[in-house]
Amino acid sequence: MTISAQVQTSDARVLDVSFDDDRIKVEFDDGRGIALPLAWYPRLLNGTAEQRGHWELIGDGEGVHWPDLDEDLSAEGLLRGAPAAHWNAA
To answer: How many distinct helices (H) and strands (E) make up the chain?
Structure first.
């Protein structure tokens, strides 16, 4: 038997962003919270704690922008667990 569930991602909005040594943690307005490997986001990984801490919401929380690091991540992409477009797993 196969069970499938479709996860609604497009309506979720980012509320808060934080970091630990190797993860980015994101809280959403629908109660979800995720933690993803910081290594998936090289610009964030290579930035300082101060640069990572200087983030802004895009629109009404549709994404997050780090002006000091020229990085933008969408709420939808984060919820899908999508690495940055410039991430290379090799």
So the answer is: 3, 6
